[in-house]
Write a structure and sequence with these properties.
Blueprint: H1 6-52, E1 57-58, H2 59-62, E2 76-83, E3 89-91, E4 101-110, E5 114-124, E6 143-150, E7 177-189, E8 194-195, H3 212-250, H4 270-276
Parallel strand pairs: 1-2, 5-7
Antiparallel strand pairs: 2-4, 2-6, 3-4, 4-5, 6-7, 7-8
Amino acid sequence: MTTPSLASRILRVVGIVAVGLAVSAVAVKAGFWQLGRHEARAAAIELYEANAEADAVPLAEAVPAGNPVGDAEWTRVTVDGEFEQGSTTLLRNRPVDRERSWHVLAWFDTTDGRSLLVDAGWVPIPDSGEPDGVVPGLPAGDVTLEVVLRAAEEDDGRRDDGATRITPVQMPAPAAEPIDGYGMVQQVCTATRCEDALGAQVPLPTLSLGPHLAYTWQWFAFALIAPVAGVLLARREWAAMTATGDDAGAGPRASSPPKAARRRRAEPSDEEIEDAL
């Protein structure tokens, strides 16, 4: 058996330690990524609690012209204007309490010259699958809405029956400059009456911190364990290679050829002695 050289043994041990350090670096990166997600969730919940529990303010105060919803997300606002007739769009893949539903989306043209996309309410999808007689029409004339502002949702590329996001690209073009964000309708007030929504009011989502902090500590613990395990494995490998090298270096001793057995001299018989005399 060939004995590994000292250089190859050192290289192998260093490689084991390097792999342990690389795994540790990846674990640290993953831990900070999970920590970032935890902090983002915590900030969102703090913003939700601060804005959603406050009294409603005018839309123009919460989101000035030209600004996105941004930090005003979850703010309750009031806005005056008119629904754009013919802009109703049904979002089909947003169940409410596990019930198949249509969300009634529409454009609302505000008195300050902007258009706000609103989720005006939801209705159960009937067995017939037809919206006639099920989806309420948009109130005409001057309307005052109370909505909870939400940041714009990222477009996932799905359209029509497969749509899952509340985004302007699902909608017909609005009559005015659209606000970057949308509103979840909490109340609709016309000249004659007020109601919670068109259909049923869409419940606000429940926010939680999730498991990201636990995952963070798990990744950081793994980051500590990986290099220690690498060093222990490298020491074990070095000891095993050293032991193998010593045994191989000593090698079996060559056996010497057996010595020829010395012939025992035979004792002379009595006749041989008499003849000699």
